[in-house]
Write a structure and sequence with these properties.
Strand content: 5-15%
Largest sheet: 7 strands, parallel
Shape: globular
Distance between the termini: 29 Å
Number of helices: 8
Number of strands: 7
Oligomer: single chain
Helix content: 40-55%
Strand order of the largest sheet: 3-2-1-4-5-6-7
Radius of gyration: 18 Å
């Protein structure tokens, strides 16, 4: 299948590590012009070098962008247009909020999580839409969590704002369909990233056990019997954001090895 990504302009936030980086690599392998962003220039440089070497694609650039800063989001979109003339694909991604239950958080915690995990997505979409509407084509993927289908224990902040992302995506899919702009939400389950390892460590500390025990129990609950690899997640995202997807929009998909049982 031709994914029609050669030379396409792709913007990815939180792309220096984890799922963002894995997704950037898969786009680069398909010949896209990829603009990475995150808060750390050092990590971005490392990711850029690695992605170029593995993919053989020289069209991988980066810009420092804190997605809680609206001015930096504007600069991100402007830079993508300066480099590539337009924006064909936006992959909205952000680090997860702290783990905890309702009594663990004050107003400022809720505000920070809202700005990081929902408002940043709104702002970034706002900045890329002019390019997509002008060319009457675009793909937007919002990376959330498997909690979009089934809430996760001890992650009330994530559960709350990931659900908001789903509502945003579904509403926009209806507003943007006439412009041939497709938007979907993708929720990773237990994918072997630093974020998941950190959550496993926190749960292990709370229960007084080793992280390996937490992972082992989690793997037993996954029908495929293992954590997913970032590459497996990334390939699904790339398809949804590619020219191979021409009719799927407004959907919320989980990539979790069959873990979530809710319909």
């Amino acid at each position: 299948m031709d994914l029609n990504l050669e030379g396409k302009s792709v913007v990815i936030t939180a792309a220096s590590k984890g799922l963002g980086k894995a997704t950037a690599l898969e786009f680069a392998k398909e010949g896209a012009s990829v603009l990475l962003s995150s808060r750390s220039e050092d990590e971005l440089q490392k990711a850029q070098t690695e992605i170029k070497e593995i993919s053989g694609n020289p069209h991988v650039d980066y810009i420092v962008c804190d997605v809680t800063n609206p001015d930096q989001i504007k600069r991100l979109a402007q830079t993508a247009v300066e480099y590539n003339g337009t924006i064909d694909v936006l992959i909205n991604n952000a680090g997860g909020p702290p783990a905890g239950t309702f009594n663990d958080f004050e107003d400022q915690d809720w505000s920070r999580a809202f700005e990081l995990n929902l408002l940043s997505f709104i702002r970034t979409i706002r900045e890329v839409l002019p390019s997509m509407k002008k060319q009457q084509s675009g793909r937007i993927i919002n990376i959330a969590s498997s909690s979009i289908k089934q809430t996760l224990d001890n992650l009330i902040l994530s559960n709350t704002f990931r659900a908001g992302v789903v509502g945003l995506s579904k509403s926009l899919s209806q507003e943007l369909a006439a412009d041939n702009i497709l938007i979907n939400t993708v929720g990773p389950g237990r994918i072997a990233t630093d974020r998941v390892a950190s959550l496993d460590e926190k749960n292990a500390e709370k229960l007084g056990v080793k992280p390996e025990e937490i992972r082992g129990k989690a793997e037993q609950s996954i029908p495929m019997g293992r954590y997913g690899e970032p590459e497996e997640f990334a390939k699904a995202v790339v398809f949804l954001a590619s020219g191979g997807n021409t009719y799927l929009t407004g959907q919320s998909l989980v990539i979790d090895g069959g873990l979530v049982k809710a319909l």
